[in-house]
Amino acid sequence: MYPNAEFRERVEAAFIGGTFNGDFNFNLRKLITTRRLNPEDVDRMRAIYVPCGDTLSRAIAAARERGAVILCAEPGNGRRITAVNIAVDLGMTPEWLVIDEEDVYASLHGKGHKTYLLNLQESAPEVIPTVGKELANYIARLREVGSYLVVLATERELRTLDLAVEPEIVKLSASNAREVFLAHLAQWRSREESQVWAADDRISGVLTGASSQDAVTLAEHVRESGHRTPQEGAQEVLAAYCNWEKELDSWFAKTKGPEQGYQRALLLSVATMEGSSVAEVFDAADMLCKAVGIPYPPGRGLIGPGVSDHLQDVDARYVKGRVEFTRPRYGVAVLDHVWEDRPYFQSHLTTWLTKLREDQPTAILLRLAMRHGLTDLVLETVQGWSGTDPKRAVDMLTAAAMSDELGRAVRSRMYVWAREGNQESLHLVVAAVCGGPMADVFDRIALTRLKHLAGRDSERVKDAVLTALAGLVTRPQLRVPTVTEIVKWTGTAGQVQRTGLRAFVKLAALRSGEGRLVLMPHSTREETLIGDLASGWRASLRDPASSHEAKTAAVAWLEEVAQGVADGEVICQVLAKACRSSIDVGVLAPLIWHWARTAPEDGVDRESLCIELMRRIGEADRLTSGISLLDAYDVEETTEWDS
After folding, report:
1. pLDDT tens, 156-172?
2. Which residues is 12 bridged to in the sheet?
3. Three state DSSP letters for 233-267
4. In Å, how far are 365, 383, 415, 641 from 589, measured between CA atoms?
5. Structural element, H or E, at residue 158
6. pLDDT tens per residue across span 360-383
7. DSSP string, 303-321
8. If residue 70 lies in a helix (H) or strand (E), which one and from where to where?
C-alpha cells in the first residue's frame, strides 16, 4: 500500500515542473529532509539565491553571536533558501525540525554541528506557545554541542511564541524580482540569453513589482517554452504565465450553446488526462457527458468527425497515440478557469475526477485542492477511497500531508483519525502513509500516529503498524528514532504495550536484503541504539506472551556474532545493559548457556562468547558482581535453551 514509484515520479515532476504552487520550496525542502544535500545542490542553491540587502550577513552574525536567529516574513519571501544559506555559511549541515503535538521536547533534536531549521507554519497553532517556552533552553543545549537554530516565522506566529528572551529577529523583504528571474533562468540558459529575456519590455514589465515566486514561475515558463529569444516566444510565455486567461475567455465565449457541450467535456477530459491514450481521454469525456446530461456523439466514433477534428476543436493533438495540448500548461489553466468561473459545477467536476481510476486524475485533484486550499476535498476523497481503492487513498494522503499548502491541516486530521473512530480501512491507509515517504520528512509526526493506531483493537490495523515500522527501521536515518519509539511503547500499558512488544521481537529478527539483522548496531559508537535495544530485549524477554519469540530472536543475534558477521562487543554491551536485576539474569544466563551447549558441532567457537557474556552479565548485576555465573550450570547439562 505504499505509494508506487510511478505516482511519486508524477507528483514530484508536477511540483518541480511548476504545476503546483510552491514547487521550488517543495524541491528545496525535499533535498534537505531526504539527506541529499550534496555539494552540487549547495552550489546550485547559492547560485540562485538573491539576498535582499544585508539580510543574509546580519542573520549569520546574529546566529553566530546568540546561537539562533528568527527570519520573519510572510511565505514567498525566500525564508527557506535564506535559512539554508545561513546553515552553509555557518559550516553546518541543515536539518528540518518538525514539532510533534504530543511531545514538543522530543521534537527538538540536539546533535552537534547542525543548523536546525524550524518553520513554525508547519506546527499546529496551539503548539506554538509551548515551543516558545522550550526555545530558550533548547538554544542553550544547541550552543553546548556547537549547533545553531534558525526559526522561520510570520509576525502572527512571533506574537504567539511569546518569548521572554528572544533571539535577534531579521525581517526579510522580497528580493529583486529581476535578479531572481535572471538567477533561475541562468540554470537553463546562458547568462547572455537570460539578460536578453530580462531586457525585453514585455518581460521586464511583468517583473516590475512581481514577487520572488512570480519571478521564479516566469523563468520556468521561459525554460518550458523552449524558445531561445523573446522575439520567438515572449507572447506564448506571457500567455502561459497569465494562465491563458484571454484565450480561455475567448474559447468559452464561442462554445456557449448546448451543441458545444461535448467540446467542453472533451476539453476537461484532455486537461485531466493529458499524456494518456486517445481511448482513455475519450472514455473520460463520455463519462463526464453522461454524468451531467450532455449528449455525446453516437456510434463510439464511427459516426461524425474523427479524432483529429475533435482534438483540434480543443487545441489538442495526439502524438504516437497520446493526447496533449498544443500549448504549455494549458490543461492546468483550463481546470483553474472552470473551477473559478463555474462554482456550481465544482461538485460535479470533483465527483467525476474521483471516479477516474488513473493516477493523473489523482494528481489533478491534489493540485486543485492545493491551489484553492481545499483540505476537505482531499480528506473526503481519501475517506471514500480508503474502502474501495486504498492504494490511491495512500497516494493522495501522502502527497497532501507533505505539501506546503495542505500539509499541516492534513497531518492534524490524520492524528484525529488515528486516535478516534472505527473505520478500519481508513486506519490502514493512515498506517501506510506513516510508513511511507512522509516519515522521511515528518518522522516524529508519523511515529505519534502509529502509536495511536497501535492501540486499536483491530488486528489488521496492528499488523499494518508492524509493516510500517518494518519499513521505517530499514532506512538508516529512521532506525534509531523508530526503535526508541517502540521501546517507549513497551513501557506503557494495554494494546500499545502489546503491539510494542510484538513489534520489537519482529524487528529484532528482521533481516535486510543482504541477510544482515536490521537492528544489530554496526559498532559500539551507536550508544543510543544500544541503550534502546537493551531496554527492548529486557521488556520482551520478561513478557510471558513474547518471551519465546524474543528468545528465538536473541539466539539469532548470538549466532550472528559467533559466525563472525556482527561485532561481539556490541552484543556484549546490549545484553549486559539488558540485565538490571536478578530476574533479567535468570532469563538471559540460561538462554546463553544452553545456546552454546546445544549448538551443532560445526567448528564454530560459541564457548568464548558464552564465557564473555556470562562475565559481563555477572558484573552488570550488583548482587552477583564478582561471581561467575558459569558455576551455576552443570557442564553436562544439555536441556534446550528455551526450557
Report:
1. 999 888 777 778 999 99
2. none
3. HHHHHHHHHCCCHHHHHHHHHHCCCHHHHHHHHHH
4. 59, 51, 43, 10
5. helix 155-161
6. 788 889 989 998 999 999 999 999
7. SSS-HHHHHHHTTEEEETT
8. strand 68-72
